[in-house]
Design brief:
By secondary structure, this protein is of the alpha+beta class. The chain folds into two domains: 99 residues, Glutaredoxin; 106 residues, Glutathione S-transferase Yfyf (Class Pi), Chain A, domain 2. The chain contains eight helices and four strands. Strands 2-1-3-4 form a four-stranded mixed β-sheet, with helices on one face. Strand 3 and strand 4 form a beta hairpin. The radius of gyration is 17 Å and the shape is globular. The model has no long low-confidence stretch (mean pLDDT 95). The structure holds glutathione (GSH). Glutathione binds next to helix 4.
Length: 219
């Protein structure tokens, strides 16, 4: 069994990887990277992940970054866990990757523009925030329409794609995106929150917050 260490921050997108690890029932160590204190830029963390991002999963001493890559790796290693639906055709596998990439490269940057506009501009952050909101609208509408006929992204069964989407739309909500026009997303949210691996990830994050003490709240 590989030795796994997750670098993360409670509430950040690293929660997707943590949920995947929990869903696969894996043993792993976790260490917080305090983004509020800029720890991602420290020489110590850059030596672990030169890109300065979380999540970072260190597998037997080797770095793997990016939620999409990490969950794909975990799925390849533990297909029986069901992070993604089983496939019988390489095209279906590539389509699953396309879903993960589109969340990572489409949703996430728009959420960040909305939730943390100062990362995208040295000018007026409110313009960027508004643009982020605008870019999210068609994504939210598309998700709402898809969820009209199914409880989860791929149909009847949960997959890690649901948790990745959840993280994006709930983080957008923290950036004042109004989710009230999207009742199917509201039901999806309740289903994702009820998922056991998600609940276990929250417990693990809570333990990390307790270890951080006041540092969790220092901007
Ligand atoms: N597409 C990447 C995004 C990773 C990312 O941007 N993570 C944020 C936390 S949600 C981060 O590390 N931010 C620190 C920074 O950009 O300085 C993924 O999903 O893994």
């Amino acid at each position: 069994m590989a030795e796994l260490k997750l670098y993360h921050l409670p509430g950040a997108c690293s929660r997707v990887t943590m949920t995947a690890l929990e869903h696969c029932g894996l043993d792993y160590e976790d260490e917080v990277v305090n983004l509020m204190q800029g720890q991602q830029h420290s020489p110590e963390y850059r030596a672990i992940n030169p890109r300065g991002k979380i999540p970072a999963l260190v597998v037997d001493g080797k770095l793997l970054g990016e939620n999409a890559a990490i969950v794909s790796y975990l799925h390849m290693e533990h297909p029986e866990a069901g992070l993604l639906p089983p496939i019988s055709d390489p095209l279906d596998g590539a389509r699953q990757l396309a879903d993960l990439f589109s969340i990572s490269a489409g949703w996430h940057p728009s959420v960040r523009a909305n939730r943390m506009p100062v990362r995208w501009t040295t000018g007026d952050p409110e313009e960027v925030r508004a643009r982020g909101k605008q870019l999210l609208q068609p994504l939210l509408e598309g998700l709402e329409a898809r969820l009209a006929s199914r409880p989860f992204w791929y149909g009847q069964e949960w997959s890690i794609v649901d948790t990745y989407l959840y993280w994006n739309y709930t983080t957008a909500e923290e950036g004042q995106v109004d989710l009230s026009p999207f009742p199917n997303i509201a039901s999806h949210r309740a289903r994702v929150e009820a998922h056991p691996a998600f609940q276990r990830a929250l417990v693990r994050e809570k333990a990390a917050i307790e270890r951080m003490g006041d540092a969790f709240y220092v901007p």
